[in-house]
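Ex. 9. Protein: Proton-dependent oligopeptide transporter, POT family.
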Amino acid sequence: MFDVSLWGYGEWAATVAAAVLGVFLIGGAWAVTRPGDEVLGHPKGLYMLFFAEMWERFSYYGMRALLTLYLVKHWLYSDGSANLIYGAYTSLVYITPVLGGWLADRYLGQRKAVLFGAVLLTLGHFFMAFEGDGSGYSNDPTLNVFWLALALIIVGSGFLKANISVIVGQLYPRTDIRRDSAYTIFYMGINLGAACGVLIAAFLGETVSWALGFGLAGVGMLLGLVVFIIGKPLLKGRGESPVPAKLKEKVAGIKLEYLLYGVGFAGVGVIWLLIQYQSLVGGILLVSGLALLGYVLFEAFKLDKEARDRVFAMIFVILLMPLFWGLFEQAGGSLNLFTDRHVDKGGIPTTFFQSINPIYIILLGPIFAGLWQWMARRGIEPSTPAKMGLGIVQMGLAFVVMVWGANAFSTTDAAGQIMMPVLFLFIFYLLSTTGELCLSPVGLSAMNRLSAPHMASLMMAAFFFGTAGGNYVAGFMGSLMGEGEGGNMTREGALDAYWTMGLVAVGVGIVVMIASPLVKKLMHLDTLRDDDLAGDAELGEAQAAGIHPATRPAE
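Predicted structure tokens for Proton-dependent oligopeptide transporter, POT family:
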């Protein structure tokens, strides 16, 4: 292990990733210890949130890269079952922010919600290290610990995911032009953690032991929790409870705050049962999605016309999420298995390819942020819905190009298996990443920029709910591919499905781009003012919605 002359791609990549993490940690320590409230033009709190989220993503993506392979190779599930479990898990990760966002808006505040979520996540990732005896899901009772670990991670994400993004926005005024770059910095922290989590934790999990990989993910989450606790003073009071006195009131002899944490632990029990019956998750998503939409519309009709129109625009954005993420999340499910079996990897571990997307984002994120601002200053920046339509088109093209490459350039290996050149996997991730950069941070921006103040976390949670639908769709489509030979997907079946997905996405993306001027009118961007928040700071990313106004006082 320590003889560098024997190292392969994995050892070198993990070493480089560890060195990169070290450089960023040193840079972060330098930033937060500088005199003054700002460093490099941004509040110190941004850098603290950067590192807290970086470690959370280290743990999440380290585990995500392993999960489908772990289900198939260790727990001995079929491809179809593994994809459905993966889809149910990732969808629930994105649906629980509805509860976490609502509790933060009404009672806990974002900071306490993030803190509680981080505790649950740390426990969940450490429980993942209990891998049992390897005899398969039908024989090993340790499977119940695995379900508990997933439940803790799901509920923990619900409290942390939407709310930490909200805190970032609270550090800036609503029309502050620095906010695009702030969210780009934050987004790069997400992807730095994701890339390093794959290259370090997932690599060791795949090549040494599952327990080591998942255990390192737990260490990463613990570090994120420590960073968030130590960095509390840098938030300058942002994200605190809107009703601190009420949290101290007793309900049935228990402080309301502790009672709310009890609700969170009860949620773990519910999810522990639910995650074992993945086929029910789709129906629950549909029913709860309709209920959430009804609640959002109910709240919208209490608002004035412009605010109500903005809610309609946000609903349009949310409805695009299931399609995009249903395609994008094939990367962690069916495409992970396809890569393992049908791609000429040249000796590179399968999990490593999960790091391509976050690495591309780190490289391309600043370019896109600069591009939007350059276009904005010249009055040619696309609107939010136009950018999102463009993102969906690119996601579709990722599949189209990959399938074309697999059909036109595949070769046969020594065992007689048809293998796709790895180049087309890199092209797939490039197009899906540029699509993500046109859609995800832009949609995140629109949610909080356009939200009424009392609906900020709710709308952010609704945005993640749309993503949840996409994740379930991803798993469900992957499970259909797994209905091939002996419950495992075939190469031809997967390529046929990918081709259809790609063509549908390109068509939908074009329609969205055509409809974008009508949606932009609903946003009423020209009348947004800082005083819309009654004196509070903005609750999310701002400027990707189509214009970049200079910071100005409310009229």
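Check your answer against this statement. The chain has a mean pLDDT of 83.
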